[in-house]
Design goal:
The structure is a single chain. By secondary structure, this protein is mostly beta strands. It folds into 2 domains: 33-175, no CATH class; 187-358, YVTN repeat-like/Quinoprotein amine dehydrogenase (Methylamine Dehydrogenase, Chain H), CATH 2.130.10.10. 8% of the residues lie in helices and 44% in strands. It contains 3 helices and 31 strands. The strands form 8 sheets. A 5-stranded antiparallel β-sheet has the order 2-3-31-30-29, with no helix packed on it. A 4-stranded antiparallel β-sheet has the order 4-5-6-7, with no helix packed on it. Strands 9-10-11-12 form a 4-stranded antiparallel β-sheet, with no helix packed on it. It is globular.
Length: 397
């Protein structure tokens, strides 16, 4: 009997040791793959590595800094280029209008909301998506289509619809060459060695409709009014580029060939802003979308440093003072090889005159290299990112 008890005790001891070994070596908690990892989730789920930051949506955030009565540094950054600027209510006799700015913090992927009247800032989405490169917002500010790289050697381009206030999010097709967003829907571009295909989707990512094809494989796209599109060759100061108006699948050249050509379509489709480079000298003009007539402008910058007013009557641009003369534009600016010291100017499309709006270096004693400019529909608030440090700013017009 005593011998039986000893054997039983030894067996139990071995079972216990085996259980400890199993739990120590094989039952460790699962590790979540971050963006850049080898796999993607199913549609409707968050991106790899997406989670939630502890503390919910109302955690304390650094307060915006009021530099002057009209200029506010919303975030020291870095932020993702691209913001949604929305009028939440119109001004009445008894109240003033309120403008909301939605933007994404680059480090975490969290969405933040800034209110211009109260100058308050709070986090409204705590989904963690690090590594976002750019964001294109629906006009309502409800969804941002964010782009980030993943896979071996970061060779896969992912486009994820990140909802600012709900869990309804989804993926678009991988490796899209370009994307444009408006109230009309989502315009996507798939490119390959045989050319490009553009498709229009509903804002929820459903019902894709092919809108045009082209043998050109290196182009950028945008909406031009309600029924037309703008396509232009990817810009380089070393190569001549061209811009095309696309209607019912038919391409009509409206500008080019010009080196470094960049195009920016107006919201209502009346105009296209064109920038180009002659050597290291920037040039800019307005092109009438209906006639193709080109009208020179008194100031010049890269068109990606501008934003249109909703009524097509004005442009706001970051105009560089004495840009480096040895650079190749726009290549060196895109790559961060050169930086500008900008002032913000307003360009009137009817009279084609320019008016200084913001002398940023004078007000802040620091340089501004403006990118990702955004404007609310009522033309009350201009928002921009300073490319020098990825900080986010708002200016009351």
């Amino acid at each position: 009997m005593k011998r039986t008890l000893i054997i039983a005790a030894v067996v139990i001891a071995f079972i216990g040791i085996g259980a400890l070994i199993y739990f120590y070596f094989f039952a460790k908690p699962a590790v979540t793959t971050a963006p850049g990892g080898p796999s993607l989730p199913e549609a409707g789920q968050g991106p790899p590595g997406a989670g939630t930051t502890p503390g919910g949506g109302d955690v304390s955030t650094p307060a915006p800094v009021t530099v002057s009565p009209r200029l506010v540094k919303i975030s020291a950054g870095p932020v993702v280029p691209g913001a949604a600027v929305i009028n939440t209510r119109l001004a009445t006799a008894s109240s003033t209008g309120e403008t909301a700015v939605n933007y994404i913090e680059r480090e975490s992927g969290n969405v933040f909301l800034y209110l211009t009247n109260t100058k308050t800032l709070r986090r409204i989405s705590n989904k963690t998506i690090p590594g976002i490169e750019s964001a294109a917002w629906l006009p309502s500010g409800s969804v941002a289509f964010v782009r980030y790289l993943s896979g071996a050697q970061f060779s896969t381009i992912n486009t994820y619809a990140l909802s600012a206030s709900s869990s309804t999010s989804f993926f678009l097709s991988q490796n899209l060459a370009d994307i444009a967003v408006s109230s009309a829907g989502i315009l996507t571009l798939a490119s390959g060695v045989n050319g490009s295909v553009a498709s229009l989707l509903r804002p929820d990512g459903t019902n894709p409709i092919q809108v045009f094809t082209t043998p050109l494989s290196a182009i950028r796209i945008s909406f031009l009014g309600k029924s037309q599109y703008l396509a232009y060759t990817k810009p380089s100061g070393a190569l001549p580029g061209a811009a095309f108006l696309v209607e019912a699948g038919h391409f009509s050249r409206i500008a080019g060939p010009k080196n470094g050509l960049v195009a920016l379509a107006s919201p209502l489709g009346a105009w296209v802003l064109m920038s180009s480079a002659s050597g290291s000298t920037l040039q800019m003009e307005l092109v009438d979308a209906s006639t193709g007539e080109a009208l020179s402008l008194p100031v010049a910058t890269i068109a990606d440093k501008c934003v249109w007013a909703a009524d097509d009557l004005a442009l706001y641009c970051g105009i560089p003072m004495d840009p480096p003369s040895s650079a190749r534009y726009p290549d060196d600016w895109y790559q961060g090889a050169v930086h500008f010291s900008d002032r913000i100017w307003k360009i009137d499309t009817a009279g084609r005159y320019a008016q200084l709006v913001l002398d940023f270096p004078k007000e802040t004693e620091s340089d501004l290299d403006a990118e990702a400019l955004a404007l609310d529909p009522a033309n009350t608030t201009l928002v921009f990112v300073n490319k020098n440090d990825s900080s986010l700013w708002a200016y009351s017009l």
